[in-house]
Amino acid sequence: DFLNRVDATRATADAIYADANSAYSGSGSWTPYLCQYTYEQARIDQSVLSMFGTYATYNGNSRPEASYLSLTYDLITGDVLSLSNILSEGSSSGDLRNLIVSALEVQKEENFLDDNFAETVENNLSDSLGQYDAWYFSQNGLCFYFQPYEIAPKSSGVIVAEIPYEKLTIDDVINWCVENNQVDWLKATAEKEVQI
Questions:
Q1: How far apart are CA 53 and CA 70, in angstroms?
Q2: Do 55 and 9 meet the contact criterion of CB atoms below 8 Å apart?
Q3: Is the dihedral of CA 25, 28, 30, 33 positive or negative?
Q4: For 33-44, how does the pLDDT look when each residue is reduced to its tens digit (9 = 90+)?
Q5: Exposure string (b/e) for 125-162, b if CB count within 10 Å is 16 or more?
Q6: Most Cβ neighbours (<10 Å): which of 18, 26, 47, 79?
Q7: What is the full DSSP assignment across 23-59?
Q8: CA dist., res. 90 & res. 8, Å (int)
Q9: pLDDT of 17-35, one tens digit each?
Q10: Is 157 left (phi over 0), alpha (psi -120 to 50) or beta?
């Protein structure tokens, strides 16, 4: 799956390059064009690679436009993990929403969050959790992120709500952690809630 995504990204880049070449050929003014994907590892261990990155384009505006993306792989199977792989069937979007909103409340003033940011979180999670892709694993927790303008002004940049692993219960993540012998991911919680 990873190699397929590399090929798809390469094909997208080739198409963008062809469009830019076409737009800049001939007469008229020339404006530099940029399209750049960058990823950094947010977490890597024996079972998972979680990456967080930026997709930036520049086509002559006052500054490049950026959006953020993430990708998490199960290194044992090679599959891309979705949120529905991680959360158990018993997990409710309401519980998850409350954890995310709590993590955002702390940064409300510092990042100038909109007054209705909790409603945006609710709307994002009201769709199928399996389709929700604005998340990744960090060293310390499960992170959910919001694009510029989504819940704060552009000047605040990307907004990240990190839920520490110890705040997630084993019931929340039992699907992937137990099936893949990853209970140690939530070691503090696991020691409290299950016998290993």
A1: 6
A2: no
A3: negative
A4: 777 889 999 998
A5: beeebeebebbbbbeebbbbbbbbebbbeeebebbbbb
A6: 47
A7: HHSSSS-----EEEEEEEEEEE-SSEEEEEEEEEEES
A8: 34
A9: 887 777 777 666 666 677 7
A10: left
